[in-house]
Amino acid sequence: MKKEFFIILLYILCFAFLTEGCSTIDRGKDPKEAFVSSLLKKMTLEEKIGQMTLFTSGWDVTGPVLNENYKQDILAGNCGNIFNAHTVSYNLALQKMAVEETRLGIPLLFGYDVIHGYKTIFPIPLAEACSWDLDLINKSAALAAKEAAAGGVNWTFAPMVDLTRDPRWGRVSEGAGEDSYLGSLIAAARVKGFQGDSLSDPFSLAACVKHFAAYGAPEGGRDYATVDVSERTLSDYYLKPYQSAVEAGVATLMTSFNEINGVPASGNSYILKDILRNEWGFKGMVVTDYTSINEMVLHGYSTNLKEAGEQAVAAGVDMDMQGSVFLNHLKESVDEGKIALSQIDEAVRRVLNLKYDLGLFDNPYRYLDENREKEVGLSAEMTDHALEAAHKSIVLLKNDVWKDSKLLPIDQKTRKIAIIGPLGDNQIDLLGSWHAAGDVTKVVSLLESLKKSLPNVQISYSEACTTSGNDGSKFPAAIKLAWESDLVIMAIGENYQQNGEAASRSDLNLPGVQQELLEKVVATGKPVVVVLMAGRPLTITWMAEHIPAILNTWHLGTCTGEAIADVLLGRENPSGKLVMSFPRNTGQIPVYYNMKNTGRPFDPDNKYTSKYLDVPNTPLFPFGYGLSYTEFNYTNLRLSTNEIGMKDSLRVSVELSNTGSVAGEEVVQLYIQDLVGSVTRPSKELKGFKKLLLQAGESKVVSFSLTSDQLRFYGANMKFAAEPGEFKVYVGTNSVDNIAAGFTLK
Ligand code: GLC
Predict the structure, then answer these.
(1) Which residues 6+ apart lie within 8 Å of 585 measured at CB?
(2) Fewer beta carbons under 10 A from the terminal one: N or C of the chain?
(3) What residue ranges of the chain have pLDDT lower than 70?
(4) 350 CA distance to ligand 1 centroid (A)?
(5) From ligand 1's centre to the CA of 170, what distance in Å?
(6) pLDDT at 69
(7) Predicted TM-score of the model (pTM)
């Protein structure tokens, strides 16, 4: 009997070795798949659910802190991911807990909102998009990744790519504006910047495209509000930037708070499975936004949290941010058979794949090097780029002649300058929303920069009021400074909390009593330049009518003051172009460049056309608009032919001349108009742009090629294709001022 027993035991052992051995050393399997599969096999259901759980570190004066429950959850393997935790010392302590004190030692993900910089803050994304410089934007993301990775972070909740046509929504500051073509290119540039060539590069971060989907289209511009758009609008516009991020290889995606056409994003299998997984082939990890699974109950989509968790897993969510829904209910759902273990394994595999790709299983401490942290943070490499990005993000809205000359660049003979307004000697507001671990002490204010640049000029300053509230008691002192000056520079706009998340505004005038201040200063008759610092387009119609020079600088980050001083003094020639239209008033919203003609297109001389009684349909400043200190002229628009087939390409060229007196950069923009389609088509669509530097007097031929692929859209029956017919091509300096020609697509 004994012999038979041992033979059977030997057989069992051999079989066990062969199967176990295969799973760990199977040459046929991809090493990552083999590793992750073997790890999955060892995990309990609780440990698997822990990998689907993400908790935030808290915050106190000394920096991030983790509440004791979360630490216990890490130690118990119930929480595999932390966000809002950074610095090497802090994250090293947490990583040691996970790696050295838990049963399986699975490393933590450390996520953070590195939206436009970590310690060195670059211009807010809406500002940087106005550079139309994809290499610059890519470099900003790459440097932000390098600095944040040196700070112990390995995952950023960026880029935000939500298309936005409504500046009442505060989060327009985080995106790339109203156009899906430009927004898609910027999305890809940012993903590639953050992620670099390999996620295992200790200077790269896993990116997270957000907020999927169409979070930028809330009713009334109210944050978190209902999104109800047609499938065609969703497909032709809002989904494009997310798709571009997926095609660029983004590692993760975040679901949005809003519902889309009745189904909350975190429970929406149409967008998360049909589109994201099946149509786009996304293989990465899906994390929800903050407690958005819990909110499915308030949406009226889930009866209770347990059902919300089941709906989220069924729709394709892999990780629950801060909601504890998976942690508290998913085991029960599996025990009841509501969720299959295979569904859990699918989600956990994607989380573990990400950790594997980041190299965390090779070396969980690869992002945690204190020497590197000291070398990289706020280095010259970072601040030099922050300055360049700030220069390129500034948009010159107006620079009319005042009396006998233009006010910008500031005349060298100016002897007395008054800077007036709440943002003239400010630091934190210039960092803008979502400024992560931005070092406020490194921000140089406009006042400080101008004083440093103009040592022989008398520069006085009056805050005059704040960016909110109604206290005008300091106006007299400010007006007195204006009287005593040769030139007034108004530094006005929004503070960093008046835009960004949960910062929608129903009235887009200058907040507080800044408009009243501006009018009183103008009443002195002194020459006034406005430096407008905000996180969104504001309604500045009065300003545009009464102020000869307006510099729209947004919130430019660490190097704001220096960048603005360089432009005010002509050391830099502004080249930014708006990526969102500026409405004349809030009532005009939504106003965007690629609206449709309607059957009664706007005609100021015909009452019965699509328009308002009180304002024209056109925005105050259109998409693509931005002036320079020089002048550019467009001539000789040429098409290689006036008829192309589906397989042909059309060459479009134009001659651009710098007819002014200084060198300058211009963004040459190419738009098309499809005159007739199986569904109505927008009046214009951006299909190309080129930014180039021309010396004074220099001319260049700028050319583009157009193919039928670029003319595709979702036509009748939602078929994505180009349709034969007549087209117009527009080339010019913005979406309104351009020259046109026609061609036929056969
Ligand atoms: C916030 C934001 C999201 C951010 C997340 C983590 O609520 O909606 O953009 O990434 O929570 O901070």
Answers:
(1) 539, 541, 615
(2) N
(3) 1-28, 60-63
(4) 21
(5) 14
(6) 85
(7) 0.95
